[in-house]
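User: Hello! My lab partner asked me to get a predicted holo structure for this protein. The small molecule is fe (ii) ion, SMILES included with the sequence. Please write out the structure tokens.
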Amino acid sequence: MNNMSEQQGLIESFHTDGYAILRDVVDRNAITALQEASVEKYRDLVDAHGNYDSDSVCNTVSFAKQIGRDHDVEALINRVSRSPNLIDPLELILGPDISMNYEIALIVNDPADRSSVTNKPYHQEQWTGALSDDLTVWIPVTPVDEKNTLNVVPGSHFYGALPHRNRNLVPMDGFAIDGVRTITDINVGDALVFHSLLLHGTAGRSDNLRIALTRIYRPTFAPMSRRMQARGSICIKQGVLSRIRDALGNDAYSPLRTYGGKVSNLPKHMEDDFQV
Ligand SMILES: [Fe+2]
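Assistant: Hello! Below are the structure tokens for the protein in complex with fe (ii) ion.
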């Protein structure tokens, strides 16, 4: 996104609607390989164990977690999450210092699953512990259709934090959800980014298996909820002031700590890690 008017358009639509779709920003090879691997592994697990356990609890969530911990899948998710064409536009929203949450959330929407955990009612991510600087990025791993995608309520991030009861809105006098938009114009390779106060929910189930990746990105120095702090985050991009501080190595700016040449505490691999 090099064009100034495109960049301004992203900022304005995110401000107005509370979400935006970033087109063709995800590493194409990585997302294709992730689709193949995650669908195959999910189908294998269903074949081996069935959709429900012996207590009639749906296995979908535990299968998804298991797939996310697979070494190869984790590596692909890492490539997808760090796609340069994804991170660059995020900088317009988050600023130059960007971190992402450590946790990986692979969400499987299986037609055979009857759980509300994977077919969520309208809610705000704030319910999960996200603060207003936490940006949710929802990346379809498989194609979506109108029945298994996400619904969003444009502009609802300006409603403020709404009362929830177990990830479900508590009915409020005089308040109704209207202006729902079903996100169908999104393809594998795109990413939906949305504000933590945006009302959103699963559109439902269709006849097709749908897998998506959810990750939270934030300005590195923004306040975090204690829950998010405890779960950890990873720095993926540093602004120039952070790079200078990083080279200086400590907040006391110890005199001449790096005097005499290339600093010993900034090896090349760190520069690569932070995309400086
Ligand atoms: Fe959500």
